[in-house]
Amino acid sequence: MTESTGNEFASRISRPGVFLDRDGTIIEEKHYLSRPEDVVLLPTAADTIARLNSLGIAVAVVTNQAGIARGYFPETLVAEVHARLDDLLAPFGAKIDRYDYCPHHATEGQGKYRIDCNCRKPKPGMLTRAAEELGIDLSRSLMIGDRFGDLQAGANAGCQSALVRTGYGASVSLDFEGESVRFRGAFASLADAVDDWMRSLGSGSNGIRDLADP
Ligand SMILES: [Mg+2]
Ligand SMILES: [Zn+2]
Hints:
Layout: H1 2-14, E1 17-20, H2 45-54, E2 58-64, H3 66-69, H4 76-89, E3 98-102, H5 125-134, E4 142-145, H6 148-156, E5 160-164, E6 183-187, H7 190-203
Parallel strand pairs: 1-2, 1-4, 2-3, 4-5, 5-6
The structure holds magnesium ion and zinc ion.
Residues 21, 23-25, 145-147, 167 line the site of magnesium ion.
């Protein structure tokens, strides 16, 4: 019993994690999604999340929801959307371990939401908080998203990053102008991005391609 507890503790404090942007990465980008019934999974999302679950890799969603700050929808909508997403994932045996969202905007926010917070991507606040809660080793982890700010948030948290060509990712330029984003590449789907990263985990090579220093 003691040994078993020790092993669980050891794996808990050191496991890798995958941080996922939500809109345009797991589900279709709907431009300020404001109705749970508009949640539509992207083709490889559920299977990929289930695969990560089965390997004991933490799966955390980190999503900017400035629609709250802008008054487009109430903060309570976020929990409804995430409950809907959970319902769509469950039949695949897929589960998001933790959701973090940022309701703020520094210049467009109304009332209490108008703050220069530490959680709005490209800042790393949501990733570092989730890492603490889930026992994720950031240096062995990956952030996947469809916008440049997602890649920056991953790098700012000490993770690698990957772009998916879904959502806004279809038109993101890979000319990062000397920014260091610990970038692994651009991939057609979530499955392809995770496949690439999984291969690097076992190989001993970190697989990082830093565009600032090619
Ligand atoms: Mg997105
Ligand atoms: Zn925030």
